[in-house]
Design goal:
This protein has 99 residues and is α+β, with helices and mostly antiparallel strands. 37% of the residues lie in helices and 24% in strands. The chain contains four helices and four strands; from the N terminus they run H-E-H-H-E-E-H-E. Strands 2-3-1-4 form a four-stranded antiparallel beta sheet. Helix 2 packs across helix 3. The termini are far apart.
């Protein structure tokens, strides 16, 4: 099935974000993260497709690929503390090498 112009626009503007949440009390963290994400994306299947990683130990939250509109919407969800863009950092390749 061919993508519509709207589908292409949405997927091309999506970027990885880290969503920090309150620690869930009566639910497994990943289930809570999927439920929170599904409330914005419309289904559990869409949430599973967008979810990249679920953080459970040092922090509670998850990373997901979201459009700017989805970032604005998820920021309003109960239990969401902060949403920040994901960053990729490049490590040095060895002593004396900066690239």
């Amino acid at each position: 099935m061919a993508e519509s112009a709207d589908d292409t626009k949405s997927s091309s503007s999506a970027a990885v974000h880290i969503i920090y949440t309150e620690k869930p009390q009566d639910e497994q963290p990943e289930a809570y993260h999927l439920r929170t994400l599904a409330s914005v994306l419309g289904s559990e299947e869409a949430a599973k497709d967008a979810l990249i990683y679920s953080y459970k130990t040092a922090a509670s939250g998850f990373s997901a690929k979201l459009t700017p509109e989805q970032v604005a919407e998820i920021s309003k969800q109960p239990g969401v503390l902060q949403v920040v863009p994901g960053r990729t950092l490049q490590l040095h390749s060895g002593p004396g090498k900066l690239h």
